[in-house]
Sequence to fold (117 residues):
Amino acid sequence: MAERVQNWIDGYLRAWRSNAPDDIRELFTEDAVYYTAPFREPWRGVDDIVEQWLVRKDEPGDASFTWKQVGEDGDRAFVQGETVYADTTFSNLWVIDFASDGRAAAFTEWWMDQSAG
Fold:
């Protein structure tokens, strides 16, 4: 599982830095769901995920990201991360549900603004 998580996050960081639709598309199954907040409707399907990602994109170099895998349960991985921008830092918790081909069938990202404490 650790290698699958590493490969997926490497792809996520590549997509984050490039904002290339094909890089984003490679991460998710056709019918994937992407949850961005606990009570918000998820993005549904890879086309919606690509579209919504690009609406909210960061510019390359705007932030750095560090992470570690903190758990797994079958095809589900749990990742703790930290995203550092020039003016704020976010703590992240990701849940990735993998399809058999290594793409995400479901992705949940929770983030907390460290300056809000």
